[in-house]
Amino acid sequence: MSCLLIGVYMMKSDLEGNRFAIINNPTNSEIEDFQKGFEGYNMEQTNGEYNSPEDWLSLVLKDHDGNIVGGIQTSTLFWAQYLEVFWVDERYRGLGYGRDLIEEVERLARENGCFASQTYTFSWQGGDFYQAVGYKLIATYDGYVEGITELILSKPLNIPAQSRKSDPARFKISRDDSEESKRVVQRGLGKNFDDNVADLLKMYPHMNIGLVVKNHDGEVIGGLSGYSSLGTMNVKDFWVNERYRNQGYGKDLMVYAERVARERECISLQSACFTFQNLDFMLNFGFEPYGLSDVYPRGEKEYYLIKRLTKD
């Protein structure tokens, strides 16, 4: 089916003369060129601060025998920390170790200059826990199958955490960026998905999408990347070179992604968009805001967007 879609765009290119086709199986080099364009635009719009203040951070919780029994992995984006992977072994839940991990990673984020900490969590996961440790629910995404929802929560970091006495009997938290330690924590979180949505993931598996557009000189002038899972197509990165905007290439890419989403039996498209990005385009294409975050510098906001797919 994907080859047929490329054929459609190539026929359109033939009819309109100089129109460029969409490539749905780009090489790693082509994806890198697209990502460079996307990152370059965002860095330009934020005075070089889009990826600030640091790359991923990984903390682990180890028992007294040195076994990893919990961990947290975070990224940062425009001076906000994102809790990406968070897990505590079920044998040690309810003992405060989750709070310990959150407070430590927030402490490090404050030291690095982050204004806030944010996270996404599914309805069967830790929504109540996050609110108990100071996070506020700012949006709820309801575009998954079987009534699954995803909560987006945020916590300002301008108020220092209350200090607590050290207890030598408690398990210790340390930074560990090794790939093996990261995999242990990710496997722990993966078991949570297996226990709750394994059957649904067989029907609606995690599948990536990557598209690029190249001009006749072989230059990548636009692209889109993301993934589908549980009946939602998440459009993560989306960019068209400034020289080729307002010529329909952004629409071509998004229409293609929507067709792939329908092929995969998705019921919604999901995305997030800053005010300095392509918000007007997304709204004109049929996306609707379901929440926003205003924790970023200089009054910039990030809008959370959904487009519900009706049956053809």
Short précis:
The chain is built from seven helices and 14 strands. The protein has helices at 2-16, 28-45, 97-111, 127-132, 179-203, 249-263, 279-284, and strands at residues 22-23, 57-62, 68-77, 80-88, 116-122, 136-141, 150-156, 172-175, 207-214, 220-229, 232-240, 268-274, 288-293, 302-308.
How many whole angstroms does the radius of gyration measure? 21 Å
Question: What does the largest sheet look like?
Answer: 7 strands, mixed
Distance between the termini: 16 Å
Question: What is the overall pLDDT average?
Answer: 93
**Helix run count:** 7
Looking at CATH, the homologous superfamily of the largest domain is Gcn5-related N-acetyltransferase (GNAT)
Based on helices, strands and strand pairing, what is the structural class? alpha+beta
Give an overview in words.
It is built from 7 helices and 14 strands. It is of the alpha+beta class and 312 residues long. The protein folds into 2 domains: 149 residues, Gcn5-related N-acetyltransferase (GNAT) (Aminopeptidase, 3-Layer(aba) Sandwich); 141 residues, Gcn5-related N-acetyltransferase (GNAT) (Aminopeptidase, 3-Layer(aba) Sandwich). Strands 1-9-10-11-12-14-13 form a 7-stranded mixed sheet, sandwiched between helices.
SSE order and pairing:
Elements: H1 2-16, E1 22-23, H2 28-45, E2 57-62, E3 68-77, E4 80-88, H3 97-111, E5 116-122, H4 127-132, E6 136-141, E7 150-156, E8 172-175, H5 179-203, E9 207-214, E10 220-229, E11 232-240, H6 249-263, E12 268-274, H7 279-284, E13 288-293, E14 302-308
Parallel strand pairs: 4-5, 11-12
Antiparallel strand pairs: 1-9, 2-3, 2-8, 3-4, 5-7, 6-7, 9-10, 10-11, 12-14, 13-14
